[in-house]
Amino acid sequence: MRLTTYGSEYRIEVKHDCEKAIKHSYVVDLESLAASMKKLDPTIIESTRVVIIDGVFKVVTRPMRFSDVVKLFHQSEGKKELSPDDIKSIALSNLLSMIERVDDTTDPMFIEQWLKTLTTPSINKITEAASQLNDWGPDQVVKLKCRDCGEEMRVELPLNPVSFFSE
Ligand SMILES: [Zn+2]
Predict the structure, then answer these.
(1) How far is ligand 1, taken at its centre, from the CA of residue 14, in Å?
(2) What is the pTM of this model?
(3) What residue ranges do the domains of the chain occupy?
(4) Would you say 141 and 156 are in contact if contact means Cβ atoms under 8 Å apart?
(5) Which of 53, 76, 125, 166 has minimal Cβ neighbours within 10 Å of its Cβ?
(6) Nearest to residue 69, comparing CAs of 87, 99, 93?
């Protein structure tokens, strides 16, 4: 599955599993999806996970909010192609949205600067801990009508902005 975005609208290339299916491009509107998911926004779930980085920093991760995802989409708005720097900055914002605090600091500016000093294995450790919390249940599935057989199909969206953009 490949996604490209344009504002809150994004295209998914999906191939149904029916006999004569070929790959088609379908449009999903993120804002309406966000609205339908509002009730289930994981901000209401009080779950955090703690990871220790470099043996001293205590990082408290939290599930990414759907609103964070929307924000990340807007960050790439109007860009047909993202530069490596864009990808890097999106990845950073993505990570930032999953961190509640580092030690006693909740200041995002400070945390952002701190993240930039970390090694890749440390970053991965934080990402892994946070990703385990990103369970939004079945509602990140969109229903699309197959253009080949007309049947409704359920397509699961990989709601991780980094995977949206990096492929
Ligand atoms: Zn089909």
Answers:
(1) 10
(2) 0.59
(3) 1-37+138-167, 45-136
(4) yes
(5) 166
(6) 93
Q: Tell me, what amino acid is at 8? A: S
Fold of 45-136: rbstp2171 (3.30.2220)
What are the tens digits of pLDDT across the range 117-132?
Answer: 999 899 889 888 877 7
Ligand 1 centroid to Cα of residue 18, in Å, is 4
152 CA from centroid of ligand 1 (Å): 8
**Digit-coded pLDDT (tens) for 13-53:** 889 999 989 999 888 877 666 666 554 455 545 577 889 99
**Ligand 1 centroid from CA 77, angstroms:** 31
How many A from CA of 153 to the centre of ligand 1? 8
Cα dihedral across residues 90, 95, 98, 101: positive or negative? negative
